[in-house]
Specification:
about 375 residues, mainly alpha, two-stranded antiparallel sheet, 9 helices
Length: about 375
């Protein structure tokens, strides 16, 4: 099919007509988009199924609300990737301006929700590390659900307003379905904090949380060493007392049932103390694993912010600050493809770093 560029309007948009320019189908990119959509859908779908089909306490915590909402947003991005398969296969957008606006809504809203929920996870970890008592009292399911609902409401309203201003500038035939930032520059500047602020906060707070995490780890190790020394001294005293009792002549007495029993029973008290120590060690190890898993999630989020989201943020800021001729469709497609790689890995990394979720998915797959 022949297309041509008839010039650029005052807003920096391009009017396209059927004449000279030829759009070639890109089968390779179509397969890449299809693979990305499948990976995202599989990971997010399995994660949601594990949460919906499980009643385990570990999967019903306030932290789980954040993960569930990330999976929901990932499903929106999976639908967007399936629509991109059509564009890549035909070499241009053939589904009309309304469907293009819908695809843009899925992409911008999905990425906005994912980024802001990741921001809430970082904020949650900051709250837990610096204000632990307040965190234990107020970190409830109701609080997590309310924060997630506010993120969804704010993101949907903001993106809807943004796209309502963009819709008149989506002129058919459409070569590449993308947001016309130059046409709605003022609204784009207002919307930039929705995407820029979470990324900046996540990148800036991670080194602070890392130092705090290491300091808490050293404190726990020192406390465990001191506790181990006290337990060793207590064990020596208990053993010495037990030996002295064993060398004394035992006094037999008669129970109500007529059976004889030893008057002194020091072993039961020692066994009770041993069980209490084992329970304490198991609880400490479980809490340590939970803290490590939570920090692994935070590390993954920070990695995504640095490697995947930063290029998209800088690209969006550049679109607002510079003329559109510096940002052709090819560069926009490359940035979207790079961000989609993060979306592919996102649900699977949560599955890997959360053992209860991974265990539940294994049980589902066996069925």
């Amino acid at each position: 099919m022949n297309w041509t560029n008839n010039g650029t309007t005052d807003q920096g948009l391009t009017n396209v007509s059927y004449e000279d320019h030829i759009y070639y189908p890109n089968t390779f990119q179509a397969w890449v988009s299809a693979l990305q959509g499948f990976i995202i859908f599989a990971g997010a779908g399995l994660g949601l199924a594990a949460y919906l089909c499980s009643s385990a306490a570990e999967l019903c915590s306030p932290f789980s609300y954040y993960i569930i909402n990330i999976f929901l947003a990932d499903l929106m991005l999976a639908v967007f990737e399936s629509l991109m398969v059509v564009e890549k296969y035909y070499g241009h957008w053939i589904l009309g301006r309304t469907t293009c606006t819908t695809a843009l809504f899925l992409f911008l809203c999905g990425e906005g929700v994912v980024g802001n929920i990741h921001f809430l996870v970082s904020l949650n970890r900051t709250w837990a590390m610096f204000f632990p008592l307040h965190f234990r009292r107020n970190n409830t399911k109701r609080t997590a659900a309310g924060l997630c609902a506010q993120v969804w409401l704010g993101t949907v309203v903001a993106i809807s307003v943004w796209l309502s201003f963009n819709f008149p500038y989506v002129v058919e035939p459409i070569g590449h379905c993308r947001l016309q930032v130059a046409a709605v520059r003022t609204v784009s500047i207002i919307m930039m904090p929705v995407f820029v602020t979470p990324t900046i906060f996540i990148i800036a707070i991670y080194p602070v949380l890392w130092r705090k995490h290491q300091a808490q780890r050293r404190i726990r190790e020192n406390m465990q060493m001191e506790k181990g020394q006290h337990q060793s001294i207590s064990t020596i005293g208990t053993t010495f007392g037990r030996r002295s009792i064993m060398h004394r002549p035992s006094v037999a007495c008669q129970d109500d049932d007529g059976e004889t029993a030893d008057e002194d029973q020091p072993v039961s008290h020692a066994a009770a103390g041993g069980h209490e120590q084992q329970f304490s060690r198991a609880r400490t190890a479980r809490q340590k694993r939970q803290n490590m898993n939570n920090f692994l999630v935070l590390s993954w989020i920070s990695f995504c912010a640095v490697v995947f989201w930063s290029p998209m943020v800088w690209y969006a800021v550049g679109e607002v600050a510079f003329p559109p001729r510096y940002f052709p469709d090819s560069s926009h497609s490359a940035v979207v493809l790079w961000v989609s790689c993060s979306t592919c890995l996102d649900p699977w990394m949560f599955i890997v770093t959360m053992p209860p979720l991974r265990k539940r998915i294994r049980q589902l797959l066996r069925l």
